[in-house]
Write a structure and sequence with these properties.
The chain is an alpha/beta fold. The protein contains 13 helices and 19 strands. The protein has a five-stranded parallel sheet, sandwiched between helices. Strands 16-13-18-19 form a four-stranded parallel sheet. A three-stranded mixed sheet has the order 1-4-5, with no helix packed on it. The longest helix has 25 residues. The radius of gyration is 29 Å and the shape is globular. It starts with a strand and ends with a helix.
Length: 351
């Protein structure tokens, strides 16, 4: 019995990772390609009455001695057959963007630009806004599941910082479009928003967000300058406790502190985020202490040896993550305006 092998008009794709053949789950529906379905109809119509068909993908055998299609019903039959073979597959449009985001900052900005529906995978840290909670987790900030990333068939992957340079290079070698951004200051944030607008085709929204943030920064600078005309509180920000670490004015966090009008007791460090000495904190005698990490209380700081004479401790001016949401000041994003406002409130007792 003569057979014909029919190869669908879309070739299978696979990725080779570490010697393993990882086939992506994304399948295109032939029903969403007018040219392809025309080709299938033509093929079937041409061969239906003469030759049995064997499809290696669907294991469909139609011997011509047992199955004949009247000409008057051939088009209807072939359409229903195509529906059966292809229609049950969840279609992914050729032009549908599929984003994987490995940065909570970028995820929040993309959501603000109105394209969160394009996000199919995130890292565990991408927890805002709440609409991201339904997205598939592909790892955490520094550890990723490459097989899971590939199975989601991303059209674009967004990465950040030096810690993600290796995964960025791996994805580039697999010919997956990857964009890496790491905003170090508010100017970089504005550039990031503009770039994401161009990449996602949301330039109008990005421009509106950019202008809103710039106006907010300028307004807060004017407000804080009025507050500091006669009083400029000295602030110690602690981003980690063992060893104790702080942020200087070149860091993103340090720049937001400058916008608040306060004086950073560590304006310059060896790196933007660096280890500091407890003795230096005591000597610099901050008026306010802000703790940006979990697992520490104001009582823990009060009990540190030699710290009892610090102004912030004597006056009860120690603030934890219960007082200042660290995401508002540690993540570069649209909520930074709220973060600066909160810093002003706790530093100057504005409520």
């Amino acid at each position: 019995m003569k057979t014909i092998e029919f190869t669908p008009p879309f070739p299978p794709h696979s990725y080779f990772v570490g010697g393993a053949n990882i086939a992506p789950t994304r399948r295109k529906s032939i029903l969403h390609s007018p040219i392809s379905i025309f080709s299938v109809f033509s093929f079937f119509k041409k061969n239906t009455h003469d030759t049995p068909l064997v499809s290696p993908r669907w294991k469909l055998l139609i011997p011509n001695s047992e199955f004949r299609i009247p000409n008057s019903f051939s088009i209807l039959f072939l359409f229903l057959l195509a529906l059966f073979l292809f229609g049950c597959v969840n279609p992914i449009q050729d032009n549908q963007e599929r984003y994987i985001v490995m940065s909570p900052e970028i995820a929040e900005i993309l959501a603000t630009l109105g394209v969160s529906d394009r996000i199919v995978g995130i890292t565990a840290e991408c927890d805002y806004p709440p609409e991201l909670h339904t997205k598939e987790i592909i790892g955490n900030f520094g550890q990723f599941n490459l097989e899971r990333i590939l199975s989601l068939n991303p059209t674009i992957v967004f990465t950040t910082s030096l810690e993600q340079s290796e995964i960025t290079e791996q994805l580039n070698r697999l010919n997956i479009t990857t964009h890496q951004f790491y905003p170090r200051n508010t100017e970089d944030l504005i550039d990031l928003i503009r770039s994401l607008g161009e990449i996602t085709g949301t330039e109008t929204r990005a421009d509106s967000l950019e202008k809103s943030l710039q106006a907010g920064f300028e307004q807060l600078t004017t407000h804080s300058s009025q507050l500091t005309a006669h009083n400029k509180p000295r602030v110690y920000i602690e981003i980690y406790g063992n060893p104790i670490m702080s942020a200087d004015n070149s860091s993103y966090l340090g720049q937001l502190l400058v916008y608040s009008g306060a004086e950073n007791i560590f304006p310059e460090l060896i790196r933007d985020y660096a280890r500091v000495n407890a003795e230096d904190v005591v000597q610099l005698n901050p008026d306010v202490i802000i703790l940006t990490y979990p697992g520490i209380t104001a009582e823990d700081v009060r009990n540190r040896r030699g710290w009892s004479g610090i102004n912030a401790i004597q006056n009860g001016r120690i603030y934890t993550i219960d007082d200042v949401n660290p995401d508002l000041i540690l993540r570069a994003g649209p909520r930074n305006i709220d973060g600066i406002k909160r810093l002003i409130e706790v530093i100057y007792h504005e409520n």
